[in-house]
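Appendix B, example 12.
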Amino acid sequence: MAARSGCRVYVAFAARAATSPVLAAVQRETPAAIQAGLRQTLGALPAPRPGPRPDPEIGARLLSPVTDGLAFDAVSAPGSLTRADLETALETALDTYLDRLLPSDQD
């Protein structure tokens, strides 16, 4: 599974970055770049009806841990989530989050 393999690589990289200044710099830059992209994307979304536009900074900070946490669980507790369970959990989490940011006109 690509997501699980990617998470394994990320966890191994993060562990090594704890003792390598060169890798630690990359470890700091990568999440910062992801957060910047999320902020930009969330900031470009239309404001929900009715109500104020969600804060892109808070939205970005909340989104990453949800998806990262599910992926980490799949790697750190092998067998606890099947591929289908992980995909469903990620899809449900993202759909729920995006529905809160962008409620449909029918809500």
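The two ends are 36 Å apart (CA to CA). The helical segments are 2-17, 21-44, 56-76, 83-101.
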